Amino acid sequence: MLKVDTIGKDIKKAADIIRRGGIVIYPTETVYGIGANIFSEDALKKIFAIKKRTEDKPISVAVSDFRMMEKLVYTGDRERRFIGRFLPGPVTVLLKKKEIVPDVLTPGTDLIGIRYPEHKIAIKLIELAGVPITSTSANISGEAPPKRVAEIKIDADYILDGGDCTGEPSTVVDLVNWRILRTGAKYDEVLAALREI
């Protein structure tokens, strides 16, 4: 397992690995995540294996801007108002997916979780990879997500060391059924917005 000693020094290398179907662990404003090209079926299978995650559990996607998000999901005025208030940031939004999104990411549902992280390394990684990447915590399923590199117990092709993350997971919001599925960062603000918008 490799480590980047200088923050951001090898983001380009990490992006190249993702483009080639590899697996990269990267920092976000919440916890460390596992990144892979969402259009590489082999890479997605590796993630399920690495995390020891059953394939009936969905995996969210991280994007680097709103344009990339719009290619993956359907949004209306109400959803866009919510998204504009909280993204980029530590909130995952569930929206109806477009056909381009691989079914392996969304077993049994037509919704996909979208993360637009507020973290320079994560954003640069996605931009340089040129594709949306997976956004799932870098841990074995059921174990605590890592907030620093020293806590990572799973293997990957590359690790981007961005220092300590907050350790607080994102709040997950279903914007189709307008409800919170997981409490996390900015929970109170999200709850208030769901009542207001």
From TrEMBL:
Residues in YrdC-like domain copies: 8-186
Presence of keyword Transcription regulation: no
Membrane-traversing stretches: none
Keyword match Flavoprotein: no
EC numbers: 2.7.7.87
Subcellular location: Cytoplasm
Predominant subcellular localization, coarse grouping: cytoplasm
Gene3D superfamilies: DHBP synthase
Family statement drawn from the similarity comment of this UniProt entry: Belongs to the SUA5 family.
Protein name, UniProt field: L-threonylcarbamoyladenylate synthase
